[in-house]
Amino acid sequence: MLRLSRFLPSAFKRSFDLKESLWSGSLTFQQAVSTSAANLDENLSGKRYASYTVFKGKAALSIHPILPSFSKLESGGSRVSRNGSVMLTFFPAVGQRKYDYTKKQLFALSPTEVGSLISLGPAESCEFFHDPSMKSSNEGMVKKSLSITPLGSDSGYFVNITVVNSVEKTNDRLSVPVTKAEFSVMRTALSFALPHIMGWDQALTNHHPSPAISKPRVERPHPDSEWER
Amino acid sequence: MLRLSRFLPSAFKRSFDLKESLWSGSLTFQQAVSTSAANLDENLSGKRYASYTVFKGKAALSIHPILPSFSKLESGGSRVSRNGSVMLTFFPAVGQRKYDYTKKQLFALSPTEVGSLISLGPAESCEFFHDPSMKSSNEGMVKKSLSITPLGSDSGYFVNITVVNSVEKTNDRLSVPVTKAEFSVMRTALSFALPHIMGWDQALTNHHPSPAISKPRVERPHPDSEWER
Amino acid sequence: MLRLSRFLPSAFKRSFDLKESLWSGSLTFQQAVSTSAANLDENLSGKRYASYTVFKGKAALSIHPILPSFSKLESGGSRVSRNGSVMLTFFPAVGQRKYDYTKKQLFALSPTEVGSLISLGPAESCEFFHDPSMKSSNEGMVKKSLSITPLGSDSGYFVNITVVNSVEKTNDRLSVPVTKAEFSVMRTALSFALPHIMGWDQALTNHHPSPAISKPRVERPHPDSEWER
Amino acid sequence: MLRLSRFLPSAFKRSFDLKESLWSGSLTFQQAVSTSAANLDENLSGKRYASYTVFKGKAALSIHPILPSFSKLESGGSRVSRNGSVMLTFFPAVGQRKYDYTKKQLFALSPTEVGSLISLGPAESCEFFHDPSMKSSNEGMVKKSLSITPLGSDSGYFVNITVVNSVEKTNDRLSVPVTKAEFSVMRTALSFALPHIMGWDQALTNHHPSPAISKPRVERPHPDSEWER
C-alpha cells in the first residue's frame, strides 16, 4: 500500500508548496520583465501564470507551459509561427527546504519531447539533448541533456539535467526523484498542454461570427478537401 | 456480465440522485454563505457549482472541484497564489436513503493526491494524511486519513475516511464502496479537473487581444526561452 | 491487418453518413420543437446539435450529448439541478440504406452509465435497465434494457436495446454491431462529454471578472476549506 | 534507453521544424485562398491554423485539423452539416532537408478513421481506402489508400500513402516512419481533435445567456427525455 504522506503529512506539504510556489512564481515573473523590457509589456497584461513544482532533498523541479505564437496572415487569419513548449526549471537545495533559484537550469520540451515523456512506460527511459547555441559561433560550447529514468518497481522516475559548459569549464547536474503520483500529475498536465502548445485548441475553435452567414454549398471543391487536386 | 442496475433500476436511481444532489447542493451553498460573509458575495455571483455523488447503505460520498486563486501582478498579469483542489464530502446514512449532512467529514485532495488517485491500478491502494491544525498550537489534535482500497476482482474500491480528534475524544470513520463504473466517472472527472485546479487551463488560454499587434521577431532571447542564461 | 474500408470505401461512406446525419439531425430538431412548444424557443436559439451515427444492416445507432441544467441561486451563482446525459437513438433498417426514424428507440445514459461504458474492457459486457414510468401509476409497464457485449477477438461490441411494453404487448429489439474503431470514437466522445454533462466544465471556469479585485488573504477559514469545522 | 536526439539534437531540430512549418503553413494558406476565392474570405478572417509536421529522409508528413460546418436551423440554433476531419499531407524530399510541396498527396481522416488510428495497439495495423471521384463519372479512376504499420519493437509506425491514377497511369507512394514519441503527439492531438471535428465541443457549450431565465420545471416530458414516446 502506498503511504504517500506518512512521513511528511500532506496538509503541511501543501502549505509549504504554496509558499514556495508563490516565491518561485514571482521570481519567474520578475525575471521575465527584467529581460524583456517594455516591448512585451502590453502582451503580458492579462497573461496568467501557473506551474507545478516538486521540492525534494537535493533540488526542486518546476514545470510550466508556454503558449505558441501566432503570426497574422494577409487574409486576417493567423498561423502558428513558433510552437509553445513546456519549460522544466531545476534549482538546487542550499539547506533544509531552501532552494537557490539563481542557480536554476532550464530545459524547454518541444511537442515531440512532450510526446515522448507522456508515452513513457513504467520501465522505460528517455533522454534529450539541446545545444542553446546551435547554429551560432558558440555552437557546441554548452551541452544540455535531460534524462528520465525509472526509480524501479513502478514507483516513479528520476528526472536529471546535465549542463556541460566547455567555456566556463563547468559541469552541473541536478537530479529530482519524482513519485508515481507526481509523474501522474505531470503526465496529465502535459497531455492537456500538448494540443495547446501546438496551437490546435485555437485552430479547433470556431472564430466565425455566426453560422447564419453560411452560403449554400457550392459544388466546386472546398479548400479543405483532399479532392482538390 | 456486469448488471449494474438490476436491483436498483437506474431510472429510479437517477431521479433519487437528482433530489439528493439538489438538497446537498443547496446545503453546500448556504454553508458557504454563512461562513464567508459579505466580502465574498461579489465573487460568488456568477459562480457555478457541480458535484458527483454516490449514495450507499452506510454513507454517501460527494466530490466537487474547487478553483485555484490568482493574484494580480504589477504587470497586469496574474499567477496562481493558491492551488485548487477536489473536495471529498462524506456524510453518514441515518435511515433508508436518509443522510445526515450536518455530520459530514471533508477531505480536500491536492493536485498530487489527485494524481495518485487517477493513476491507481485495479489492485493498488493509497492513503493520505491531513492535519487541519498543522503549524498552529492545535497541531496533532485532529488527524484525518483517507484510504482507497480495492474491493477485489477489479470491481471498484472502498473509499474510507477516518477522523481522530484527541481533544473531543472522537474517532469517526465513514466508508463508501465505489463501483468500477462510479470510479471511472471519478477518474475521468478528476483527470479533467486536474489541469484546471492547477490553473493550467488559464495559463494556456491566449488572453492577448489579437495577433495583429505582434511585433517583428527580435533577435534577443525571448523571456520564455531556455537559452536566456 | 484491419481493412476497415475494403468493401465500403470510406469516401463513399462519409458522404452517405453526411446525408443521413443531416436528415436525422433535422428530424431530431423538429421533434424537439414539436414537443416543447414556445416556452423553450428562447433557449433553443443559439443551441448547437452534434451527433455520431453508425449505419448497419439491420439498424442504425446515433449518440448525442445533452447538457445539464443549472438553477439560479440567491447569491447570483447557480448549481446543477439536472445532470446531462448521452442519448442513444436506435432506428431500424427498412430497406437497403433506408431507416425508419419514426420507429426509433431511445436510451439516455446517466454519468455513471457513461463511466461504465468508457471503462469497458475488450472482453467485458455491461447491461442497464430503465423504466420510463418509474414512480408513476404505470411503473413496470415498460421495461427498457441496453446491453453491450463483445463481438469477440477485440473487434468491437454489439449494442442492443430491448423494450418490453406489457400494455401494448410489444417486444422490440434492435441490435447494432459497432467496430473497434467506431467504439473508439464513442469512448473518446463520451470521455470528453462526461465532465460536461456533469457540469464540471462550467464549475471549473473562472466566471470572476478579474483577479484585480482579490482582497488580501484573511486568516479565517476559506468557505471551501476542509478545515471549516 | 531511447536516445531521441542523439544524432540530430532537438534544439537544432526545433529551429528547423520552425522554418519548415512556417513555409508549409503559408503555402497551405495561400492555396486555400487561391481555390476558394472571395466568397470564403469573410469566414477565413479570424481563422487560426496549426499543424504538426515530421520531416524524414524520403518524405514529410503534416497533419492539421479541419473544423466541422454548421447549418442554421429555423429555431435559431444550428447543427453539424458536415463533419470536420484531420488532413494528412505527404510531400516528397527532393534533396537533403528539401521537400517539394507541389507534389503533395492529401488524405482526410473521417472521425471513424481517427478512432481507428488512436486505438491502434503497438503491433496492430490499419488501412483506409478513398476514392476522390466516388459517385461521379470518374469513379474508380483514382484510388488512394493509407496504411499504418508497426515499425516493430513498439518503436513507432510507418505511415504510407499510395495513389493510383489509372487515367494518368501514375502510381505514387510516399512513406514516412513515425517514432513512438511522434505517434504519441499525433495520438494525443487526434484524441483532442476528435470531439471538435464532430462538433461535440460546441454542442456541449452552454450558449444560453443565463440560468436566470429558467422557468419552473414543467411536468410534461422534456424534449431531451428518453420517455417522450
UniProtKB/TrEMBL annotation, chains A, B, C, D:
One GO biological process term: regulation of DNA-templated transcription
Comp. bias regions, Basic and acidic residues: 216-229
Superkingdom of source: Eukaryota
Location of region: Disordered: 208-229
Keywords tagged on the record: Transit peptide
Gene Ontology terms, MF aspect: single-stranded DNA binding
Pfam family, one: Whirly
Protein family: Belongs to the Whirly family.
Protein name in the entry: Uncharacterized protein
Organism (species): Miscanthus lutarioriparius
